[in-house]
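testing teh design pipeline on a random one, pls ignore if ur not involved
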């Protein structure tokens, strides 16, 4: 039933939006819309036309209906041109991205341990942030699928290939390559580090394009999260409110560190543990370096199964429940409206950032300054979790 609902809801939304008024359908769901379907894909199709006329759409894209520069790596222009994707068939791409995303969420639901966890994943998977990505047809859906494939596969070369392609398509998934290399034993890091270095070299080679993309991507105070969004909001605050905000941030970070769960090594070597580290690392990176539209919160969804595993533990139940609840709030915070949603969105996304960051810092310390897990004898390794009965 959960899987049926997961697929039926988007089918109903698309059937109504394509046969009636696109804007009214999505606004009825409290999802902001440009008015036309899959507008984030149309900035690429218009960019292809601009490029064919000799212009550079990363700088000026006059053929776009809103004059938006193409703020994606140039590989998207080449891909759309090669595949013959135009405004007339862009709907096919948008629906395909949605299908890929739903397949990933279906995989999580199928592997859930209980009906309650499946229901939580359903609610999170159809939250407003994912619906915003679907409405825009944003390329993050495709990149999300690549990172998810890298975590789900057991083939180490397919894993690295998926992470590498994701980095080429959207830059920030480069963190997945770094996190994958860091979590491996020392003897197995050579190939992942080589992939990461190659990706870094290719991205550095495109520094002019990346600089143009940075300038073409606006810093928003609404429908967005991240340090730059908070800094932009701070410009409108009084000194008193700014001081209160900084104090709250310090208290949240301190609380997150003091209440962080003590996760054993075997738990993080599980599939859900790997997804938490990879997707959590991607989210923490995007929060720390920039301003991101809220549809990028979909990268938090694969971290939920691990948090729900912790919630089944007596010692870590409170942390797991708090994390799952905060993620769902963050995914739906902009339902309140333009101004009312900003404080709730800022608070929830920062709390999740602090909770994830503290675990990443703790694990980084263990990896680089603790005993290497490749040196541990099997008898010394701990069990997956308090609630897990199997042996490692």
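output:
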């Amino acid at each position: 039933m959960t899987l049926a609902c997961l697929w039926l809801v988007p089918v109903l939304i698309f059937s109504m939006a394509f046969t009636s008024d696109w804007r009214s359908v999505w606004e009825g769901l409290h999802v902001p819309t440009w008015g036309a379907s899959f507008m984030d894909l149309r900035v690429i199709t218009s960019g292809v036309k601009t490029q064919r006329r000799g212009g550079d759409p990363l700088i000026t894209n006059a053929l776009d209906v809103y004059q938006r520069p193409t703020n994606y790596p140039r590989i998207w222009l080449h891909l759309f041109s090669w595949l013959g994707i135009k405004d007339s068939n862009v709907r096919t791409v948008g629906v395909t991205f949605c299908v890929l995303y739903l397949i990933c969420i279906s995989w999580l639901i199928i592997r859930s341990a209980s009906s309650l966890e499946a229901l939580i994943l359903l609610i999170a998977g159809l939250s407003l942030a994912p619906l915003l990505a679907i409405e825009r047809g944003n390329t993050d859906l495709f990149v999300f699928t690549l990172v998810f494939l890298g975590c789900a596969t057991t083939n180490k070369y397919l894993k690295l290939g998926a992470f590498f392609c994701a980095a080429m398509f959207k830059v920030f998934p480069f963190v997945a390559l770094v996190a994958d290399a860091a979590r491996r034993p020392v003897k197995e890091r050579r190939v992942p580090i080589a992939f990461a270095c190659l990706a870094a070299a290719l991205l550095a080679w495109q520094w002019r394009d990346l600089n143009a993309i940075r300038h073409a991507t606006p810093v928003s105070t609404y429908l967005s999260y991240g340090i730059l969004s908070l800094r932009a909001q701070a410009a409108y605050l009084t000194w008193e409110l700014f001081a209160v905000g900084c104090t709250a941030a310090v208290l949240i970070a301190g609380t997150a560190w003091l209440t962080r769960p003590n996760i054993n090594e075997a738990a993080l070597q599980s599939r859900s543990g790997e997804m938490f580290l990879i997707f959590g690392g991607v989210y923490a990176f995007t929060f720390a370096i920039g301003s991101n539209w809220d549809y990028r919160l979909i990268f938090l969804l694969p971290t939920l199964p691990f948090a729900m595993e912790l919630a089944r533990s007596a010692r870590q139940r409170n942390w797991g429940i708090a994390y799952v609840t905060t993620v769902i709030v963050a995914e739906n915070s902009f339902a309140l409206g333009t101004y009312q949603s900003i404080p709730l969105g800022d608070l929830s996304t920062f709390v999740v950032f602090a909770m994830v960051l503290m675990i990443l810092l703790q694990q980084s310390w263990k990896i680089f300054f603790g005993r290497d897990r490749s040196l541990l004898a099997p008898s010394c390794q701990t069990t997956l979790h308090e609630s897990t009965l199997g042996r490692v």
